[in-house]
């Protein structure tokens, strides 16, 4: 229980740093419902954490009806990630890195945060939850599944972020997907 709680805390903190310090200053997006929340933030200036929570309601209702284990494993990660995403908003203007550096570091932070949480059977986002369900049902790597879903969400957000940010967001998702795949490719040590 302590290990899972630590994974949720550290993973959520890394995700929030990636979003606020590296992605948001350059209008980059990640995938998942948090990526959709970033698109909403860029279009309407709505807090990312609040939007993430609202977007996840239908997914978590589905998870609750389909498999309560997925619901309970994910809800703490979702709440913690959303809270940190809004709490660390002040990081938007603290670093002045290039868009390339921000893409790499943002993808790394978000990918490690998500991968760490998934390694302990929890998640930060409903898409992670769906990917976990698909992975367990069809023996497909969860990181690869998330990468495909993320690319679809990015294409949907291209109108809001523009072509340049879209290209760098592909880099964000690629780096993040690699980190998630690395962290979820092997089983975690017994607790």
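Q: What amino acid sequence fits the structure above?
A:
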């Amino acid at each position: 229980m302590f290990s899972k709680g630590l994974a949720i805390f550290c993973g959520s903190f890394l995700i929030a740093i990636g979003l606020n310090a590296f992605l948001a200053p350059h209008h980059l997006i990640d995938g998942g419902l948090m990526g959709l929340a970033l698109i909403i933030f860029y279009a309407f200036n709505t807090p990312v954490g609040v939007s993430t929570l609202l977007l996840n309601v239908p997914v978590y209702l589905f998870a609750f009806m389909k498999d309560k284990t997925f619901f309970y494993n994910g809800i703490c990660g979702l709440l913690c990630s959303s809270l940190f995403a809004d709490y660390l908003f002040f990081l938007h203007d603290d670093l002045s890195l290039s868009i390339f550096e921000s893409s790499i570091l943002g993808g790394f932070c978000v990918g490690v945060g998500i991968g760490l949480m998934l390694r302990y059977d929890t998640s930060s986002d409903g898409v992670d939850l769906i990917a976990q369900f698909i992975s367990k049902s069809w023996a497909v790597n969860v990181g690869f599944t998330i990468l495909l879903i993320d690319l679809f969400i990015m294409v949907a957000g291209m109108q809001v972020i523009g072509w340049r940010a879209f290209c760098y967001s592909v880099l964000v998702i690629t780096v993040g997907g690699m980190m998630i795949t690395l962290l979820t490719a092997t089983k975690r040590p017994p607790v």
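Q: And what stands out in the fold?
A: The helical segments are 2-23, 32-44, 48-66, 68-87, 99-119, 126-138, 142-184.
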